[in-house]
Amino acid sequence: MLGNFRIRKLGKLETVLNLTLGVFLMACGYYFFVIPSDLVTGGSTGISIIMTRYFTNVPISVFSAGFNILFLIAGWIFLGKKALFKTLYGSLLFPAILALLELVLPDPQFADRDLLLVTLFAGGLAGIGFGIVCKYGGSTGGTDIAIQIVKKYSRMSLAFCVYAVEAPIIIAGALTNQQGVSTGVVMALYAIVVILISGKVADSFLIGSQSKKAVNIITDHPKELKAVLFASLRRGVTEIQITGGYTENKKTLLIMVILNAEYHFVTQIIASADPKAFVYVTPASEIQGAWSSKEEVFLNRGESQKPVAK
Q: Looking at the domain covering 212-283, what would its CATH class be?
């Protein structure tokens, strides 16, 4: 399936509004489905759910804000100021929205709660919200920061770092379930389903189901564009001289194959270097030759983001 479009630079107001929308959808998914069902899906919210089992008079938004602030401090110490400012907005907005929902709808209980429907809607809302946040270059903070710290100071892959941080939280949720460990194990399995659904939905929302894309860029400024691309990520670029069929003007076609997670980062690079560039994207389902699928390609942006529990 061919996607033709002209890219544009994102305004600050548009970015903030969409980041707010994404965080709001994630908060709704957790507040209306995950939290009332006592599902510990990892993340700072999962830790907060465990804490409210022992401190029932404390709102979950308070624990969420507290843990997010602790993670922000850890990010400041181990990752630096730049990483902190990238996550600050989402980290503080998420518990603020939870607090607002607690004030407006203090008891979001539904009769005859079906855990299958809960996992579907929770995973769907969280996935769409996270996809929007990632699309506009944001971060939800929380254990995302812990994952980045583990990745920085270890040789483990990003996926393994996610498991290393989130798995203990889910296991702790199963062991501390007030209805017993057997019920806790079942709830943990549902929690894993929520994570899987949210990850799949977020990935599909970002760019579709294909794992790789071929980006074709028609530009009048190939040298400037290649310089920015090479300085920002480790991907090869093929350059072809072409002629416009209607104008008969000489132009340059740049072709590069990227991962889904790199897509919106690449489009923003193109928009900054050549706003008038024409771009079309096609699936790259099969690749042979010297092409690396490693996800550690971002040099100036840090690690690529993965949909993980909030």
A: alpha beta
**Helix-helix angle 143-152:158-175, to 10 degrees:** 130
Residue limits of CATH 3.30.70.120 in the chain: 212-283
Assign 261 to helix, strand or coil.
Answer: helix
Of the candidates 267, 262, 271, 263, which has an alpha carbon nearest to the alpha carbon of residue 297?
262
User: What is d(CA 41, CA 219) in angstroms, rounded to the nearest whole number?
Assistant: 45
Tokens representing 203 are 């990935």
Structure tokens at 183: 């019920």
The whole-angstrom separation of Cα 308 and Cα 166 is 8
Q: Alpha helices, DSSP H only, in 136-180? A: 143-152, 158-175
What is the C-alpha separation between 38 and 50, in angstroms, rounded?
9
Angular region, 256: left φ>0, alpha ψ -120 to 50, beta rest: beta
Note the pTM of the prediction, 2 decimals: 0.68
**Closest to 41 measured CA to CA, from 52, 30, 31, 51:** 30
Q: pLDDT band for position 10 (50/70/90)?
A: low
Reading phi first (left if > 0) and then psi (alpha if -120 to 50, else beta), residue 44 is in: alpha
Q: Quick one: pLDDT at residue 211? A: 66
